[in-house]
């Protein structure tokens, strides 16, 4: 057998095959064509149906994901919102039992024992123009000094002012002293008295049993990397442990979460092991938050991620020996 004869035979086969598929007018071919057309139509239909199914599934999956996302935002790990920025609260108050340690300690000052422990927020205690004056003062002075990390303070009672990685005495810095005007101190004292009165009313004690205590200070928080322990403002704590003399803590917020800075919410941590819940306060200009300073009010501040957060921590004690006097322009505590 030669390669030539092979080629010939193959050609013959090819021709046969071609003949079978080439269009002719006989009935069998027409039948096949129409079957093929049907199959193709069915295939097209099936493809369209499966594309449609895929789209439907994708839309359902996306909707479920969106619902889950928003739900988790709203109900973020057992978190409730105690005060939102969009709210203007005359008064929101929550009362509960005092912690054992707080109860035991405050018993030393019978006039000062709250009917119940708790916390409240009010957006109507302090005027916006009072806050403007205090904010301007804090901004001006802290822009002359300030920590190189994320937390700077100005304590007008002791003069402590953050400067890089330490504190200086603000009353020994002439350009700082030049900024401090009588009207600042008047506003500061007025605001402090309003808050003290509100605490006394809400916790059912006479205002005369409450004394301003140290530290009472302006704070500016940013996202700068911490350089010292003082910069690490975000740790959970109990004020009574951090600042021994405190019995009632208050905070006056000088600017607004989301508008002036991101992060920096104040979070109470409630409950016990295994069943912790968070209760969030969104700081807002002129918002006052106040609470009993014991273990019943464990809390922390979330890290600021953008901008500058300004507040004043105004603290009260029931112990006359731990009282500090009101601010007077001529009597800085040197
Ligand atoms: O600035 C705040 O919102 C709270 C600060 C704080 O917890 C504190 O000074 O003990
Ligand atoms: Fe605190």
UniProtKB/TrEMBL annotation:
<feature type="region of interest" description="Disordered">
    <location>
        <begin position="1"/>
        <end position="25"/>
    </location>
</feature>
<dbReference type="GO" id="GO:0016020">
    <property type="term" value="C:membrane"/>
</dbReference>
<keyword id="KW-0560">Oxidoreductase</keyword>
<protein>
    <submittedName>
        <fullName>2-oxoglutarate and iron-dependent oxygenase domain-containing protein 3</fullName>
    </submittedName>
</protein>
<dbReference type="Pfam" id="PF13640">
    <property type="entry name" value="2OG-FeII_Oxy_3"/>
</dbReference>
<dbReference type="GO" id="GO:0031418">
    <property type="term" value="F:L-ascorbic acid binding"/>
</dbReference>
<dbReference type="InterPro" id="IPR039210">
    <property type="entry name" value="OGFOD3"/>
</dbReference>
<dbReference type="GO" id="GO:0051213">
    <property type="term" value="F:dioxygenase activity"/>
</dbReference>
<feature type="domain" description="Fe2OG dioxygenase">
    <location>
        <begin position="216"/>
        <end position="320"/>
    </location>
</feature>
<dbReference type="InterPro" id="IPR005123">
    <property type="entry name" value="Oxoglu/Fe-dep_dioxygenase_dom"/>
</dbReference>
<dbReference type="GO" id="GO:0005506">
    <property type="term" value="F:iron ion binding"/>
</dbReference>
<dbReference type="InterPro" id="IPR044862">
    <property type="entry name" value="Pro_4_hyd_alph_FE2OG_OXY"/>
</dbReference>
<keyword id="KW-0223">Dioxygenase</keyword>
<dbReference type="GO" id="GO:0016705">
    <property type="term" value="F:oxidoreductase activity, acting on paired donors, with incorporation or reduction of molecular oxygen"/>
</dbReference>
<dbReference type="InterPro" id="IPR006620">
    <property type="entry name" value="Pro_4_hyd_alph"/>
</dbReference>
<keyword id="KW-0479">Metal-binding</keyword>
<keyword id="KW-0408">Iron</keyword>
């Amino acid at each position: 057998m030669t390669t030539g004869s092979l080629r010939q035979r193959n050609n013959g086969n090819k021709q046969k095959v071609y003949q079978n598929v080439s269009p002719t007018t006989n009935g069998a071919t027409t039948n096949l064509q129409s079957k093929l057309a049907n199959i193709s139509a069915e295939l097209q239909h099936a493809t369209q149906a499966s594309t449609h199914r895929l789209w439907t599934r994708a839309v359902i999956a996306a909707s479920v994901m969106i619902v889950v996302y928003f739900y988790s935002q709203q109900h973020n790990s057992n978190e409730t919102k105690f005060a939102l920025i969009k709210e203007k609260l005359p008064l929101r108050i929550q009362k509960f039992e005092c912690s054992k340690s707080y109860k035991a300690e405050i018993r030393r000052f019978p006039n000062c024992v709250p009917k119940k422990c708790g916390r409240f927020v009010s957006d109507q205690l302090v005027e916006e123009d009072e806050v403007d004056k205090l904010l301007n003062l804090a901004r001006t002075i802290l822009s002359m000094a300030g920590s190189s990390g994320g937390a700077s303070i100005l304590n007008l009672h002791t003069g402590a002012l953050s400067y890089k990685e330490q504190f200086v005495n603000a009353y020994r810095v002439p350009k700082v002293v030049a900024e401090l005007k009588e009207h600042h101190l008047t506003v500061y004292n007025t605001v402090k008295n309003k808050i003290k009165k509100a605490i006394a009313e809400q916790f059912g004690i006479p205002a005369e049993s409450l004394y301003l205590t140290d530290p009472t200070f302006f704070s500016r928080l940013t996202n700068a990397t911490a350089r010292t322990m003082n910069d690490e403002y975000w740790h959970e704590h109990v004020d009574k442990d951090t600042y021994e003399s405190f019995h009632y803590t208050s905070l006056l917020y000088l600017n607004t979460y989301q508008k002036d800075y991101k992060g920096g919410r104040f979070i109470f941590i409630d409950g016990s092991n295994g069943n912790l819940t968070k209760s969030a306060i969104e700081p807002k200009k002129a918002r006052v938050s106040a609470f009993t300073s014991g273990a019943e009010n464990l809390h922390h501040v979330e890290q600021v991620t953008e901008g500058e957060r300004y507040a004043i921590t105004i603290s009260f004690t029931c112990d006359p020996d731990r009282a500090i006097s009101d601010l007077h322009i001529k009597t800085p505590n040197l």
